[in-house]
Amino acid sequence: MSEQNMTSNNVTVLIPTFNRSGFLVESIESLLAQTWPVHKIIVINDGSTDDTLEVLKAYEGRVDVISKPNGGKAAALNMALELVSDGLVWIFDDDDLALPDGLATLMKVLLNAPDANMAYGRHERFTVDTMGAVRILGDGYWRDCESDEFLAATLEDMFAHQPGMIVRKELYDMVGPFDENLVRSQDYDMLIRLARVATPVSTEDYIFRQRIHDGVRGTKENQVDFEAMASSWAQFDKIIFRSIHPQLKLSEYLGKGKKVHNQASKRHALIRRSAVMARKKLWSHTMDDLREAAATSDEPLTPSEITALRRALASKYGCDEVLKDPKLVDELCKLAMSSEIGSQIVASLARGLRWRVRSALFSENRWNSVRYFLLMNKLGKASSIFSKRYQHEAAASMRLFQKVDRSK
After folding, report:
1. To 10 degrees, the CA torsion angle through 76, 236, 234, 151?
2. Which of 26, 166, 173, 294 is the most exposed place for a label (fewest CB within 10 A)?
3. Which of 127, 224, 212 shows the shortest CA–CA distance to 183?
4. What is the per-residue pLDDT for 223?
5. How far is 261 from 50, CA to CA, in rounded Å?
6. 3-state DSSP assignment of residue 120
7. Residue 92 — φ and ψ, nearest 5°?
8. Which one has a higher pLDDT value, 387 or 368?
């Protein structure tokens, strides 16, 4: 292997950290223990006020440390990325653990795909109790998809995480810096930008373990408690997707390299975008797309369109807004009764609520199971009204035709 190729495959690890000295040590140790050695580890101390700098002294000569005033994860990573000229970048969280063969696994799949410029794999979640016992909580969310579907799948939800991926530096240069205005979801925003230009390759193998803990997230000035994490993610995802909506071409919701070339592909793209926007709780965009989709083609919904619609209400943040907004429900009912395709669209959305009914039974608010069930029935009934009316009108037209035919 030439010196240039060796350099291009050097892996630089970036670890932004803020007041997590205990977890940080474990993260660093897991990286130093990789069977495929890392080229360099850079810890960005983002204005920590605990003993972070003190514990990092033990790694002098093995870990580079840079310090800056507290400004958040995005600002810390932007500073560190400027120090990396080429090769591969592995952004690692200061509370997670890399599995011993994690980097080796990513390198093997990347090097076996000459056209790929990023590689990602799976993760499992874990927690440590007060006695120090480790408990594995199960797999993190994962989507098995082809390279050309990576962007479309990522728009639905984030499943490729920074500690589980390596990315060529030129990709980061291409898409620009992290958005420093985002206190949360800055990694999701970056992943979407990368996905638009990347040629990724994936593995089903586990790369890292994601620690679940009740520590505070965010910055010194904008802290996010553990209990508020989900609502905070949802809030910043909405900010991201409000910006994304006018930026992305409609065809990008179909997959990389695909185009909107006829009415069928346009409707498919509209439905996929509507499902994404529903998952991000941007229902005004969703309803605009659903109405346009219903008017675009009168062909029956395809299996892939039905699947996308059923997933529209499956956001990890829940979809309680459909229980709280009667105007939204009225809009859906009107769509269901507007046309045959409108009725199919709303019927597919309603069927997607079945999972909500079941999962709510095991939640703290079991009453929501009943509410979701009633909503599912209401949408289903609205969908059936048009279908019955359509069938009645079709039958009446057929009887009229038969009468005319017999009179000849």
Report:
1. -80
2. 173
3. 224
4. 56
5. 57
6. strand
7. -125, 140
8. 368
